[in-house]
Every structure is written in C-alpha cells, then in structure tokens.
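RECORD TYPE: inverse folding
INPUT: structure tokens
STRUCTURE:
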C-alpha cells in the first residue's frame, strides 16, 4: 500500500466520521450502531496513521517503507499519547 492509498483511506474515514457527527448534531443523536461505527472509525484512523508513521520512519532510516505492516488494533490502541 502506498502513502497516497493510506492518505485516501484516512480521508474517507474522516469524511464518514464527520458525516456521522453532523447527523448527531442535527438533533438526532447517535444510534448504538452509529456510536459503534464511530469507535471503529477511530481505531481504523489510528491504525492508518500508525502505518503512515511507520513508513515515514523506515524511509528516514533508509529502509524500504513497503515493509511496514499495519499493526493489530489492540496494539495500536494501547499506545500512550
């Protein structure tokens, strides 16, 4: 997966997230399904950004960025900010 593909995924997820928040802000609130989807989007955004950062780090170290791999959600979500 190339950087542009990852960025495209990030943009698509961000647009979906924004759409859900707009819907919630219209006075409708969030259904349980929409809330679950927002949580899933958050995780996928974190994983996508992590992959992008791995690729950047490998590139900066003179390594092949194509060897970076998406980490499992349970690993990425345990990172401390």
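DESIGNED SEQUENCE:
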């Amino acid at each position: 997966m190339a950087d542009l593909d990852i960025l495209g995924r990030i943009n698509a997820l961000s647009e979906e997230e924004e759409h859900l928040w707009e819907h919630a802000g219209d006075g409708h609130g969030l259904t349980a399904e929409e809330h679950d989807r927002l949580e899933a989007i958050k995780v996928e955004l974190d994983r996508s950004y992590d992959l992008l950062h791995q690729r950047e780090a490998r590139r900066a170290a003179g390594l092949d960025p194509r060897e970076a791999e998406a980490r499992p959600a349970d690993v990425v979500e345990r990172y401390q900010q």
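NOTES: The mean pLDDT is 93.
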